[in-house]
From TrEMBL:
PANTHER family: AMINO ACID IMPORT ATP-BINDING PROTEIN, PHOSPHONATES IMPORT ATP-BINDING PROTEIN PHNC. It comes from the Bacteria. SUPFAM superfamilies: P-loop containing nucleoside triphosphate hydrolases. Pfam families: ABC_tran (PF00005). One of its GO terms (cellular component) is membrane. Keywords: ATP-binding, Cell inner membrane, Cell membrane, Membrane, Nucleotide-binding, Translocase, Transport. PROSITE patterns: ABC_TRANSPORTER_1, ABC_TRANSPORTER_2. Gene3D superfamilies: P-loop containing nucleotide triphosphate hydrolases. InterPro entries: AAA+_ATPase (IPR003593), ABC_transporter-like_ATP-bd (IPR003439), ABC_transporter-like_CS (IPR017871), ABC_transpr_PhnC (IPR012693), MetN_ABC_transporter-like (IPR050086), P-loop_NTPase (IPR027417). CDD domains: ABC_PhnC_transporter (cd03256). GO terms for molecular function: ABC-type phosphonate transporter activity; ATP binding; ATP hydrolysis activity. Residues 2-245 form the ABC transporter domain. This is Phosphonate transport system ATP-binding protein.
């Protein structure tokens, strides 16, 4: 149902994504891992058509996604809803209105200006919030909710579009472990119960292992791993992150960055001694 072939993005001389190719034949929950700058966000943005690809092809259910323009492109962006690390809600607006914003694409300018929502959309929004366990917060301002609750509002807003695919760009990177778990469980449930494909860029290896059916590893723009959580051995993870022999199973890209910073500081200190 999804075919990515030779997908490439260049920013000047920098190749952010380099000939990425893979196919997915049924709606899976896919995790993309890799250190900062590996090209994970750029891939999601190309898939959602927020960024134009430099080369390659991306077909979904036989549709040439990269060739879409105008209304067809906007329709695709609804079919393939995106959620972000920073939730991107309107903080001072109430939760249910934030969720109803997910229907903006199919409402008239006048209805949008006067915040006129069809009753069935309001019921649908409340039902989705209920499903995500946050219907009680519907009248509150979004900014009054915890990070995990705000991310669930963002998921609810995405679900208003009834998407076939949910693209999640580091959905739990700003959350504490408890909230992160609630959000990942919500994404997994949406996948399991609705059969929607979920592609999530993830910061931590153990999250990808726990929630995803398939994991794609990226390094310097290239896909260096594509397999199941069981195939993602410590050695493979070490290659993806370009880490040293002391790499541990539970390591995350943040830990690796910290580790590298520590190593560099130690090297600088050693040079001073010499
Ligand atoms: N708009 C842009 N202009 C120029 N270079 C960019 C742009 N967006 C991304 N890049 C570069 O493309 C490369 C891949 O970035 P990308 O954000 O896709 O990585 P990432 O794996 O998502 O990293 P992170 O986890 O830090 O978000 C990086 O070298 C980045 O600097």
């Amino acid at each position: 149902m999804l075919e990515v072939k030779g997908l490439t993005k260049r920013f000047g001389a920098n190749i952010a994504v380099d000939k990425m190719s893979f196919t997915v034949d049924r709606p899976l929950m896919i995790g993309i891992i890799g250190r900062s700058g590996a090209g994970k966000s750029t891939f999601l943005r190309m898939m959602n058509r927020l960024t134009d690809a430099s080369e390659g092809a991306l077909n979904f259910e036989g549709r040439n996604v990269l060739g879409l323009s105008g209304k067809e492109k906007r329709d695709w962006q609804s079919t393939c809803a995106m959620i972000f690390q920073q939730f991107n809600l309107v903080p001072r607006m109430d939760v249910v209105s934030n969720v109803l914003h997910g229907t903006l694409g199919r409402r008239s300018t006048l209805a949008t200006m006067f915040n006129l929502y069809p009753e069935e959309d309001i019921h649908k929004a409340i039902d989705i919030l209920d499903r995500l366990g946050i219907a009680d917060h519907a009248p509150k301002r979004a900014e009054a909710l915890s990070g995990g609750q705000q991310q669930r509002v963002a998921i609810a807003r995405a679900l208003m579009q009834d998407p076939k695919v949910i693209l999640a760009d580091e959905p739990i990177a700003s959350l504490d472990p408890m909230n992160a778990q609630t959000v990942m469980e919500a994404l997994r449930r949406i996948h399991d119960e609705d059969g929607r494909m979920v592609i999530a860029n993830l910061h931590t290896l153990d999250t990808a292992r726990r929630y995803c059916d398939r994991i794609i590893g990226m390094r310097d723009g290239r896909m260096v791993f594509d397999g199941t959580p069981a195939q993602l051995t410590t050695g493979v993870a070490r290659d993806i992150y370009g880490a040293g022999a002391d790499f541990s199973e539970a390591a995350t890209s943040t830990e690796i960055r910290d580790h590298e910073a520590l190593e560099q500081a130690e090297m600088r200190a050693a040079e001073v001694v010499i």
